[in-house]
Design brief:
The complex is a heterodimer of chains A (about 160) and B (about 575).
Chain A: E1 4-13, H1 18-28, E2 35-40, E3 46-55, H2 57-69, E4 73-78, E5 84-95, H3 101-110, E6 114-118, E7 122-129, H4 131-141, E8 146-151, E9 155-158
Antiparallel strand pairs in A: 1-3, 1-4, 2-3, 5-7, 5-8, 5-9, 6-7
Chain B: H1 11-19, E1 23-25, H2 26-36, E2 41-44, H3 51-56, E3 64-67, H4 71-85, E4 89-93, H5 97-100, H6 103-111, E5 116-122, H7 138-141, E6 148-151, H8 158-169, E7 176-182, H9 183-187, E8 189-191, H10 211-223, E9 227-231, H11 233-237, H12 241-251, E10 255-257, H13 282-290, E11 293-297, H14 303-306, E12 317-322, E13 336-339, H15 342-349, H16 360-372, H17 387-398, E14 403-406, H18 410-418, E15 427-428, H19 439-449, E16 455-460, H20 471-477, E17 482-487, H21 492-500, H22 517-523, E18 527-531, H23 534-546, E19 551-556
Parallel strand pairs in B: 2-3, 2-4, 4-5, 5-7, 6-7, 9-10, 9-11, 11-12, 12-13, 14-15, 14-16, 16-17, 17-19, 18-19
Antiparallel strand pairs in B: 1-8
Helix pairs in contact in B: 1-2, 2-8, 4-6, 4-19, 12-15, 17-18, 17-23
Classes of the chains: A alpha+beta (about 160), B alpha/beta (about 575).
Pathway (chain B): Amino-acid biosynthesis; L-isoleucine biosynthesis; L-isoleucine from 2-oxobutanoate: step 1/4; Amino-acid biosynthesis; L-valine biosynthesis; L-valine from pyruvate: step 1/4
Family (chain B): Belongs to the TPP enzyme family.
Protein name (chain B): Acetolactate synthase
Chain lengths: ~160, ~575
C-alpha cells in the first residue's frame, strides 16, 4: 500500500506525561513521527497536538485506534483527509556580510518572510507557511550559508 | 478450607463506617477507597515509601493483606486472584526496586487483559527527579504496559484517582492501572470525600455493537458451508460463556478456543474442536484453514494462533468481534468488524442467528477429524513417567472441575491439551507474555478468590524455581494449593526447539543443580511428595488430594518428551509436525 504523509490533530488532557504517552506509543508501535507540536487548545485543560506521520492507510488506521486507547486522548482527527490550513514557522540564521544583505532581503521579501534580527555577520530570517514554502526558502538561503536552523513543525486545522 | 484463611467482611455492613467524611491521611483515604471498591484481599510487600500506608494497615482487618516474599509473587498473585474471580486484583509495593519488581507482572496482566490496580509508593514529591534513595520513575517505566497510570501529587485527588483506576481497569478491554503515591502524599491530611462518579471524557468503551454489522454476520452464517468460531479470553472476561454456548447451539458452528479461551466452552461438546495454533489440534487448524467463514470472538489473532499470517484462513470471510477496536484489522484483514462487548454482542445475535444449514457435511468432517486425529502420546513407562499421563491423571481425578494454573513451557501446553476444562475462569495461564514464575503465585491468588475450590498449580522444574519463595505464604496461611512440579530436569520447551529446529544443539538447558523439591517444600513447612512411576504417581496425588492444606507433588518425568502437534514458526497452521499424534 502507498506510504504517504498524514497530518493528525490529537486533543488531549493537559496532564503531566501526556506528551510521553503519545510519543511513546508512536515509538513502541513503530509509527514514524516527522514532527509534533503541542500547545493550548480553545478549551482550558486541553492541549492540541498536531503530528505529521508517514504510513499507509492501515498504519494510519492503527495510529488513530491506538491513540484512542490512551485515556488522556479525547479526540483524534485526520486533518489531511480533508481541506486544511497548515502552517509552520522557521527561524533561519543565515550568514550575511553587509554587502550581501540587500540581496538576501530581496529573497526574504519575495517570500513575505521577515528579518527579525541582524548581527555583525548574520541575519535571522523568520518564515511562516506550509512545509513546501519553508523548504523552498531554506533552499534559496542555503547558498549564502545557513548557520542555524530551527523549525516548529506543522500546526494545522481544518478549513471552513 | 482451613480456618486460617481470613474471613471476608460484607462491604455493605461496613460502608457507613468508611464513608464518614473526616480529616484523615492519604494512606487512610487509600484504604477506605479500596474498601469502597469492594476490595477484600490485597497482595503486597512493605518498604520505606509505603510506611505510612502500612502504618494505616496496622491492626486493620477490614480487608486481608497477604505478605508475599517477593513483589513479583504479589503481582502474580493479584493477577491470579483477578483471573479467578473477575474482580480487580490489588497489589502494593514500595518505591524503586519494589515497584520495578512488579514490572513483569504488570506486563503479564497487560498482555492478557487482566484488571489490576497496582499501588506503588514513591519518594516524597520534593525528592522526585533527584535520584533519591529507592527512587524510580515507575509511571514512566510502566507506561507501555499499563492501561493507564497516575502519579498522585495531592491526597485530595486520591478518592477520584482510585475510583477511576478501578473503573478503567475493569471496563472496556481490561488491564492494569498503576497508582504511584509519593510518601508525603500518603502522610498528607485532608478531608476525605468519597468519589461519587467517574467522569472521563476520553474513555467510553463501545459496549453495544452496530446493528447493521450484526445483520451481515447473520446473513453470512446462513450462507456458510464451512463456518468456524474462534473464541478467546474475551468471552470469559465479558462473562459471555453461556451466551457463546447458546450461539454455538443455535448456529451449529464448530468452535475452537484459544489458550486463554479454554473453559469458555465445555470441552465435551461435539462441536468443540480444542485449541488452535502452534500446539493446537489437527481438527482446529484444518478447520480454520479450510473455513469459508471465520468468526473470531474476543480473541486477537496472536501469532501463536495464526502461524504464518499471509497463509492464515485463506478461504475465509473474517468476522471479528472485540471490545478493542484497535485489535480489529491489526493482524488479519477483517470483512465484518463488530466492536462491542462479547456478551452483549452474542446476546443480541442469539435471537436472530439461524442454523448454518449448509454446513452439515462440514460438521461431519469435523467430527471425523476429531476421531481420527486426537492429541496422542506413546503411553509407556519404559523410559519414565510421561508428563501427558500425569496431566490426564490430574484431569481424571478431578473430573476437570479444579481451578488449574500453569507456568510457561511444555507442561503449560500439555495442560492445555489434556486437562478438559468445562468452566470459565478455571484455567489460569500467562498466554501473551509467557511469564515463567507466574503459575504458582497466581494459584495462591486464585485460592484466595475461591477458598473452597480445589486449586492446582502445575509447574515445570524451571518455572517453579522462579517464584518458589511463595511456599512460605502457602505454609503460614495454610493456603491449600496443590502444587505440581513436572520435573524433566531440563528447560523442556527450549530443549524441544533446540532438538527440532536447532539441530540437537542443546545450549544451556540442563537444570542440574535444582533443589530436591520435596525437601524444598518441607523446608517451608509444606508437605512434599515425589513420584517416578504411575503407581507412585497415583498414590502421591491421592495423598495430596486427601491432605488438608498445601502439598507439593513432584512428578519425575522423561526428559525427551516433546509437545505435539507442533507448527514450526513461520509455517501456516496446517503444516503440522504430528510427532506422536501421527
Amino acid at each position: 500500500m502507498m506510504t504517504k504523509s498524514h497530518v493528525i490533530a490529537v486533543l488531549v488532557n493537559d496532564q503531566p506525561g501526556v506528551l510521553q504517552r503519545v510519543s511513546g506509543l508512536f515509538g513502541r508501535r513503530g509509527f514514524n513521527i516527522e514532527s509534533i507540536t503541542v500547545g493550548q487548545s480553545e478549551e482550558q485543560g486541553l492541549s492540541r497536538m498536531v503530528i505529521v506521520t508517514q504510513g499507509d492507510d492501515t498504519t494510519l488506521e492503527q495510529i488513530e485506534k491506538q491513540l484512542y486507547k490512551l485515556i488522556d486522548v479525547i479526540k483524534v482527527v485526520n486533518l489531511s483527509a480533508n481541506p486544511m490550513v497548515s502552517r509552520e514557522l522557521a527561524l533561519i540564521k543565515v550568514k550575511a556580510e553587509p554587502a550581501e544583505r540587500p540581496e538576501i532581503m530581496g529573497v526574504v521579501e519575495t517570500f513575505r518572510a521577515a528579518v527579525v534580527d541582524i548581527g555583525s555577520g548574520s541575519m535571522v530570517v523568520q518564515v511562516i507557511g506550509d512545509t513546501e514554502k519553508i523548504d523552498a526558502m531554506i533552499e534559496l538561503l542555503r547558498p549564502y550559508g545557513i548557520r542555524e536552523l530551527s523549525r516548529t513543525g506543522v500546526t494545522a486545522m481544518p478549513r471552513g | 478450607m482451613s480456618a486460617q484463611m481470613p474471613a471476608m467482611r460484607s462491604t455493605e455492613q461496613l460502608r457507613e463506617k468508611w464513608m464518614k467524611p473526616e480529616v484523615i491521611t492519604g494512606s487512610e483515604i487509600l484504604l477506605r477507597s479500596l474498601l469502597l471498591e469492594g476490595v477484600e484481599c490485597v497482595f503486597g510487600y512493605p518498604g520505606g515509601a509505603v510506611l505510612y500506608i502500612y502504618d494505616a494497615m496496622y491492626g486493620f482487618d477490614d480487608f486481608h493483606h497477604l505478605l508475599t516474599r517477593h513483589e513479583q509473587g504479589a503481582i502474580h498473585a493479584a493477577d491470579g486472584y483477578a483471573r479467578a474471580s473477575g474482580k480487580v486484583g490489588v497489589c502494593i509495593a514500595t518505591s524503586g526496586p519494589g515497584a520495578t519488581n512488579t514490572v513483569t507482572g504488570i506486563a503479564t496482566a497487560y498482555m492478557d487483559s487482566v484488571p489490576l490496580v497496582v499501588i506503588t509508593g514513591n519518594v516524597a514529591t520534593s525528592l522526585i527527579g533527584t535520584d533519591a534513595f529507592q527512587e524510580a520513575d515507575i509511571t514512566g517505566i510502566t507506561m507501555p504496559i499499563t492501561k493507564h497510570s497516575y502519579l498522585v501529587r495531592d491526597a485530595a485527588d486520591l478518592p477520584r484517582v482510585i475510583h477511576e483506576a478501578f473503573h478503567i481497569a475493569n471496563s472496556g478491554r481490561k488491564g492494569p492501572v498503576l497508582i504511584d503515591i509519593p510518601k508525603d502524599v500518603s502522610a498528607q491530611k485532608v478531608t476525605f470525600e468519597p468519589a461519587q462518579s467517574v467522569d472521563l471524557r476520553g474513555y467510553h468503551p463501545t459496549v453495544v455493537p452496530n446493528r447493521l454489522q450484526l445483520d451481515k454476520l447473520v446473513a453470512a452464517v446462513s450462507k456458510a458451508e464451512r463456518p468456524v468460531i474462534l473464541a478467546g479470553g474475551g468471552v470469559i472476561y465479558s462473562g459471555g460463556h453461556e451466551s457463546l454456548y447458546e450461539f454455538v447451539n443455535r448456529s451449529g458452528i464448530p468452535v475452537t478456543t484459544t489458550l486463554l479461551g479454554l473453559g469458555s466452552f465445555p470441552s465435551g461438546h461435539d462441536l468443540w474442536m480444542g485449541m488452535p495454533g502452534m500446539h493446537g489440534t489437527y481438527t482446529a487448524n484444518q478447520a480454520i484453514q479450510q473455513a469459508d467463514l471465520l468468526i473470531c470472538i474476543g480473541a486477537r489473532f496472536d501469532d501463536r494462533v495464526t502461524g504464518r499470517l499471509d497463509g492464515f484462513a485463506p478461504y475465509a470471510k473474517i468476522v471479528h468481534i472485540d471490545i478493542d477496536p484497535a485489535e480489529i484489522g491489526k493482524n488479519v484483514k477483517t470483512d465484518i468488524p463488530i466492536v462491542g462487548d462479547v456478551k452483549t454482542v452474542l446476546d443480541m445475535l442469539n435471537p436472530v442467528v439461524g442454523y448454518s444449514s449448509k454446513a452439515d457435511a462440514w460438521r461431519a468432517q469435523i467430527i471425523s477429524w476429531k476421531q481420527e486425529k486426537p492429541y496422542k502420546y506413546i503411553d509407556s513407562e519404559e523410559d519414565g513417567l510421561k508428563p501427558q499421563w500425569v496431566i490426564e491423571l490430574l484431569n481424571d481425578t478431578t473430573q476437570g472441575e479444579a481451578i488449574v494454573t500453569t507456568d510457561v513451557g511444555q507442561h503449560q501446553m500439555w495442560t492445555a491439551q489434556y486437562y478438559k476444562f468445562n468452566h470459565p475462569r478455571s484455567f489460569i495461564t500467562s498466554g501473551g507474555l509467557g511469564t515463567m514464575g507466574f503459575g504458582f503465585p497466581a494459584a495462591i491468588g486464585a485460592q484466595m478468590a475461591h477458598p473452597d475450590r480445589l486449586v492446582i498449580s502445575i509447574n515445570g522444574d524451571g518455572g517453579m524455581q522462579m517464584c518458589a519463595q511463595e511456599l512460605a505464604i502457602c505454609a503460614i496461611n495454610k493456603i491449600p494449593v496443590k502444587i505440581v512440579v513436572i520435573n524433566n530436569q531440563v528447560l523442556g520447551m527450549v530443549r524441544q526447539w533446540q532438538e527440532l529446529i536447532y539441530d540437537n544443539r542443546y545450549s544451556h538447558i540442563d537444570l542440574a543443580g535444582s533443589p530436591d523439591f520435596v525437601k524444598l517444600a518441607e523446608a517451608y513447612g509444606v508437605k512434599g511428595l515425589r513420584a517416578s512411576s504411575k503407581e507412585e504417581a497415583e498414590q502421591a496425588w491421592q495423598e495430596a488430594l486427601d491432605t488438608d492444606g498445601p502439598v507439593l507433588v513432584e512428578f519425575v518425568v522423561r526428559k525427551e518428551e516433546n509437545v505435539y502437534p507442533m507448527v514450526p514458526q513461520g509455517s501456516t497452521i496446517d503444516q503440522m509436525l504430528m510427532g506422536d499424534c501421527e
